[in-house]
Amino acid sequence: MEREKIVAIVNDFLVNEFEVDGDEISNDANLKTTLGLDSLDYIDMVVVIESNFGVKLGEADFKKMITFDDFYSTIENKIAEKNA
Question: Which part of the chain is the Carrier domain (predicted)?
Fold first, then answer.
């Protein structure tokens, strides 16, 4: 899957499912600060990512994510690993 499609899908569900202001989403924005999600929201996000991309993200994955670019890259890498 192309990165542009990953970004579009992620941004769409963040805006629609998690009520994030789309104007605040940028590659270098801080993921946790911008999203302001609690632990239950992260569980919901894992479910949405799995249903949209067929990959699972764990707690260790989220700990490594600082920016939205990191988030997109992690999903992209998980998809690549799954398809390898």
Answer: 4-79
